[in-house]
Specification:
By secondary structure, the protein is an alpha+beta fold. It is built from 4 helices and 17 strands. Helices cover 17% and strands 45% of the residues. The protein is globular and about 55 Å long.
């Protein structure tokens, strides 16, 4: 079987996109998805995303981590899927779709910026050295010094596999504050089991956690990741964060055909 695929990236977080509106992709084949995402023996990506039909919205998002397993929400993946839907002619400048964490609205701004509405957040566990919250995916947020030389993979894995989060684990974000409303972020992603150049739900979690803990009083926050720059904006009332938007580029890289 020949598979037509599309490669997209959002600040270095890269994805294999597949138009699965005919339900022809063997999505139960975990080994195949893992092989397609392999950077040496496959196409190479942080994850694979299927665009499928939806009875109410423009489309449905089905996301798999590079280990082949279906996963929780991916913010950069969702933004890239919106750009992919526009390339396919499914949408124009706005989109409504369903992901594993529910309904999402998105807007395309200019040539490649996508603003994606994330889930509301009203539960943030603030501890002495870190915060934990779910922005569609679970995230541990921790301030560190010397972020540039920090061993994200080793230290992230320690926390991800620790008793703190049990078998399910968590994504781990290490943060350095640059200015009042600017933070540098590096993320260890579960399912990829390594540092990625960017994580959309991760920077969303960082923005909210930094506001909740008083590190910033702004509701529009810039996040510098290894693969570029993202922005998160939100409304907040009594520690409930609503109208949360993740904003950044979603870029088409190439199209190809592979035999599976």
């Amino acid at each position: 079987m020949l598979l037509t695929f599309y490669k997209y990236q959002g600040t270095g977080n890269d994805f294999i996109m597949v138009d699965n509106r005919l339900n022809s992709f063997p999505k139960e084949n975990t080994q195949l998805i893992e092989q397609l995402c392999d950077r040496r023996f496959g196409i190479g990506a942080d994850g694979l995303i299927l665009l499928e039909n939806h009875t109410t919205y423009d489309f449905k998002m089905v996301y798999f981590n590079s280990d082949g397993n279906e996963s929780s929400m991916c913010g950069n993946g969702g933004r890239c899927l919106v750009a992919f839907a526009k390339q396919l002619g499914i949408i124009d400048a706005t989109a409504e779709f369903e992901a594993v964490d529910g309904y999402h609205y998105a807007k395309i701004i200019g040539d490649d910026l996508v603003s994606l509405q994330m889930k509301d957040v009203d539960r943030i566990a603030v501890h002495q050295d870190y915060s934990f919250l779910n922005t569609g995916s679970p995230h541990h947020v921790q301030l560190v010094s010397n972020l540039k030389n920090f061993d994200v993979k080793t230290e992230g894995a320690k926390i991800r596999y620790s008793d703190l989060y049990g078998k399910a684990g968590s994504n781990i974000n290490f943060v350095n504050q640059l200015e009042n409303d600017i933070f540098a972020v590096r993320t260890y992603e579960r399912g990829v089991e390594d540092e990625t150049l960017s994580c959309g739900t991760g920077v969303t979690a960082v923005a909210i956690a930094m506001h909740q803990t008083g590190k910033t009083n702004n509701n529009i926050i810039d996040l510098n990741v290894e693969g570029g720059k993202l922005k998160v904006q939100f409304d907040v009332d009594n520690a409930k964060y609503t109208n949360v938007f993740l904003i950044g580029p979603a870029t088409f890289v190439f199209e190809g055909i592979i035999e599976i």
